[in-house]
Amino acid sequence: MVRLPRALTTVASAVLSAATTVVATLSIALMAPLLALAVLFGAVGLVAAPADAAATRLIQGVVWDQSGRAIDDVLVEAVDADGDVAASAFTYASAWDSGPQHGYFFLEVGPGDYTIRLSKAGYRSGTVEDVVVTRRHGAALGDLVIKRRPAVSRTTASLVDDRVSTADDVLVRVAVTSSATDRPTGTLSVVDAGRTVASTALRPNRHGRAVLSLGQLRRGVHLLQVRYTGDDLVLGSASQRLMLVVSRYHRGRVTAQAARVVTSAW
Which residues form the Bacterial Ig-like domain (predicted)? Predict the structure, then answer.
């Protein structure tokens, strides 16, 4: 084996050490940009995608009125525990044939406890309390109902005969109309001098029309009025006053109603 002189060994060691330092320095210089990018992307990732950003869930449902019609353009708001509106949307018709065709809404919110507010012009406002949304589950509210504000009604009435005898039944024709519906319900009453002499329920299939029989009234002049109570969709109203003349029945005299029946038979 050949031994190098001590001086040469020392020089060789110094050269090797210097080369190693240069290589290490160069490696660090080359790796520095990669390390910087790694740190940068890691930081950006933490800022752009926080843990709560993907925790939003849906609150959804369908809004109807009291007559069973799904309603579009209802403002739906999710109000959080601080009283702030966290999300809002209008009800609409789903674009999918399999979806609700009217009245559907969805709200995208984070976990929390919410109050859902419903509002639309011409309707009473509605609320749904304590709607809870978690990180795992939203809230399917199903069918929600808001009631239409009652609309004005008009009640008209007429006598089948305004002159009858004490032997005749008094008949009153009544019609109730409203812009809210063509099938109003409620109760019709005929009042004579503050006393109810007849009443009947107004059926939806009669489209606001009815004929009331008052039976036989005493002799004299009667001022009759028809009063309509109204329902959830329609406000009550009263007809004009009707003047009825009732004369004494004389045996052998043909009454007005009997004469009409005979005439119609021909």
Answer: 164-246
Please write the tens of the pLDDT for every residue from 73-95: 999 999 999 999 999 999 998 87
E strands present in the chain: 57-64, 75-79, 85-90, 104-109, 112-119, 126-133, 139-145, 153-159, 163-165, 170-178, 186-192, 195-202, 209-215, 220-228, 237-238, 242-247
Domain, as residue range, for 131? 57-145
Query: Which residues contact residue 251 at a Cβ distance below 8 angstroms, ignoring those fewer than 6 apart?
Result: none
Give residue 208's region: left, alpha or beta (phi > 0; psi -120 to 50).
left
Which pLDDT tens digit goes with each residue over 4-43? Answer: 444 444 444 444 444 444 444 444 444 444 434 333 333 3
CB 118, CB 127: distance < 8 Å: yes
172 in any annotated domain? yes
Report d(CA 109, CA 229) in Å as an integer: 44
Residue 69 to residue 244: CA distance in whole angstroms: 43
The predicted pLDDT at position 254 comes to 52
Asked whether residue 191 is domain-assigned, the answer is yes
Question: How many domains does the chain divide into?
Answer: 3
